[in-house]
Amino acid sequence: MTLFTDLLEKTYANSINLYDGQKVVYTGETVDRDYAEVGTKIITKKGEAYSADYKLHRVAGKWKVYDIVAEGISLVNNYRSQFNRVIVNSSVEELLKKLKEKTMS
Asked: Which of 41, 77, 81, 95 is 20 to 30 Å from 69 by CA-CA measure?
């Protein structure tokens, strides 16, 4: 799990530096016991809007994001597909090796 967290941090942390005046607009939420979804729209300076919906799970009384669905594409499903391809074509060990390489580069 730590390896995957490291990969996400390396991949997406630099995106924060790309902030250039975009606005984030809250579009609604749904809650079902310990699961919730928060909808947002990211609006660029040019007025283009992109959806980004956050899926959350309540753990020990705190809400934790477990997936982001950007423009209908789930981050979790995207990674799951990529990981499955590596495992089917080689092995779990090869997947771990590739993840380590990506976090080190």
From this structure: 95
